[in-house]
Design goal:
The complex is a heterodimer of chains A (217) and B (297). Chain A is 37% helix and 15% strand. By secondary structure, chain A is α+β, with helices and mostly antiparallel strands. Chain B is elongated. With 297 residues, chain B is α+β, with helices and mostly antiparallel strands. Chain B is built from nine helices and eleven strands. Classes of the chains: A alpha+beta (217), B alpha+beta (297). At the A-B interface, helix 3, helix 6 and helix 7 of A face helix 2, helix 4 and helix 5 of B.
């Protein structure tokens, strides 16, 4: 079993980018470079955690950060976009719970957004969380009563747009390590590492809309 | 404890503490310090009131506790005037775009004739599911556009060369969006590199499809603002052939009630229609064209 050369990885990345899987010739090249015979099955791709953190969020989280939080973003992040497929076997990354996998969060939220899933548990929870956060910001004098009303009115309104997922892509090498908080084990859904950055600035990361590349249900 | 919160901390701070307690249920790691103690007491009291065992930390149970804390904090806050809040958002251009009622002016449907239905869907999808947006708020300075929103979205087709961007410009009027301009921009025809935002794209588009007109003594095909509105149509002769020039503009009024106009583009519709014919994109050619979910206020 080969776990670091990337044939299957090319396929999984290809799905995201709308490209076709890597050709068989590439598989034989990998076998050749790895000194494996033709029977060696390249079964999955894995790689080291890269210099990027990923975080899937509803579009409204971005709006709130920009319009009511002075451009300060909160992000719960992962070292892999798709920890299930990309994290190496035996690493902590493979043990990131599916409920914390950015790709899974993105896909599920996109599905619920496209299908206008009125019973979506995730959207209900987002609604509650934004309401609670707005109350704490109002109590702390961080937002005005008018701004509080606008947040509450927006999450209560029948908008689907605000739940459309976006992906934060965060190159973390330039971020001070003290700002990256390892979420303690009891607060993580699995053993795999997850981090929080509470004060991201907009110039420290990109926001990507993958919806055109994700398959329609 | 819950009943005494308002007296002790005040209405809004008490609501904030209850909200913080509800949020803390999402974490096993507990807050420290005085606030941590108060939050722990609030949660304990809620458990007692709901008859929930201290050891019961099942997700549904925690959700019930959080909902109770939410309802207590809601009681402390005055009810939100939703219409007023959404009205403010609409005025600034911050309202979620799918909450606007979309009205497309007749001139656009006339341009597309029998292909209008597809174009209408493209326009509505662009507004509700944009990739770029730009909004001009209420009038603040003279000689500036006001109450105009622009949206951009890309559409992929089966053929790379037929992919296009849709650019929509609309006037905001309460919860209504009156669409005055909607253009398909094909990258092979219009150089979009380095265009700054939707207005920059509109300018690039007009550089290709524009026809020169005179406004306020200046010749051009794109004007951000003009103190004097242009006529809607011009008839000119190009290579000795009559040519119909369509002028699209947003009328607005200055503080003295004088009419002026903004985002004025003079477009040679024949040239634009020829491009649409040349690319001839049908509905089935557009990949993964999911109409954006429609919301109602």
């Amino acid at each position: 079993m080969l776990d670091f050369f990337g044939f299957e990885g090319a396929r999984s990345r290809g799905e995201i980018a709308g490209l076709s899987p890597a050709p068989p010739r590439q598989a034989s090249l990998i076998r050749q470079q790895a000194g494996l015979d033709d029977r060696a099955k390249i079964s999955y791709f894995a790689r080291m955690a890269g210099p990027i953190y990923y975080s899937a969020n509803p579009w409204y989280a971005k709006e709130i950060s920009e319009k009511y939080r002075g451009g300060s973003y909160f992000a719960w992040v992962c070292e892999y976009f798709d920890s299930e497929r990309e994290a190496p076997a035996g690493s902590g990354g493979i043990m990131i719970a599916p409920s914390s996998n950015p790709r899974k969060i993105y896909e599920e939220l996109l599905d619920e957004y496209r299908n206008q899933e009125e019973h979506s548990h995730r959207i209900k929870e987002y609604r509650k969380t934004f309401r609670r956060l707005a109350k704490t910001w109002l109590a702390g004098g961080e937002i005005s009563q008018d701004q509080f009303d606008e947040i509450i009115a927006s999450v209560q309104a029948n908008s689907w747009r605000i739940w459309k997922p976006v992906l934060y892509v965060i190159p973390h090498l330039s971020i001070d390590r003290n700002r990256i908080i390892l979420v303690k084990r009891p607060d993580r859904a699995g053993y795999g590492p997850e981090f929080q950055i509470a004060d991201l600035r907009r110039d420290e990361f990109d926001i990507i809309d993958l919806s055109a590349m994700m398959r329609l249900p | 404890m819950i009943d005494a919160l308002e007296t002790k901390f005040g209405r809004i701070a008490a609501a904030g503490l209850l909200a913080r307690a509800a949020l803390s249920l999402g974490y096993v790691e507990k807050s420290e310090g005085d606030y941590g103690i108060i939050i722990a007491q609030l949660i304990d009291e809620t458990r007692n009131r709901l008859g929930i065992n201290r050891e019961d930390n099942a997700p549904d149970t925690l959700s019930r506790i959080a909902d109770f804390l939410d309802s207590e904090s809601d009681k402390l806050l005055s009810p939100t005037n939703t219409d007023l809040a959404l009205g403010r958002l609409a005025e600034r251009g911050d309202l979620p775009s799918d909450l606007y009622e979309i009205n497309i002016i007749e001139a656009i449907s006339d341009t597309h004739g029998k292909n209008w239905q597809l174009e209408k869907e493209l326009i509505e999808t662009t507004i509700r599911d944009f990739t770029q947006e730009q909004h001009y708020g209420p009038p603040r300075k003279p000689h500036e556009p006001a109450m105009i929103s622009l949206f951009v979205r890309s559409f992929r087709t089966k053929w790379l060369g037929k992919n296009f961007m849709m650019l929509v410009a609309a006037r905001r009027d309460g919860f209504k969006l009156h669409v005055h301009q909607a253009w398909r921009i094909y990258p092979s025809k219009v150089n979009m590199a380095g265009a700054s935002g939707p207005v920059g794209l509109l300018q690039r588009f007009s550089n290709v499809y524009g026809a020169e007109i005179e406004m306020d003594g200046r010749m051009g095909h794109f004007f951000l603002f003009s103190a004097t509105p242009a006529p809607d149509n011009y008839k000119i002769k190009l290579h000795n052939k009559p040519r119909h020039i369509h002028v699209s503009q947003f009328f607005q009024f200055d503080s003295r009630g004088r009419r002026n106009s903004a985002l004025i583009v003079a477009i040679d519709l024949v040239k634009y229609k020829n491009t649409l014919k040349e690319f001839f994109v049908r509905r089935e050619d557009i990949l993964e064209f999911a109409k954006a979910p429609e919301a109602t206020l």
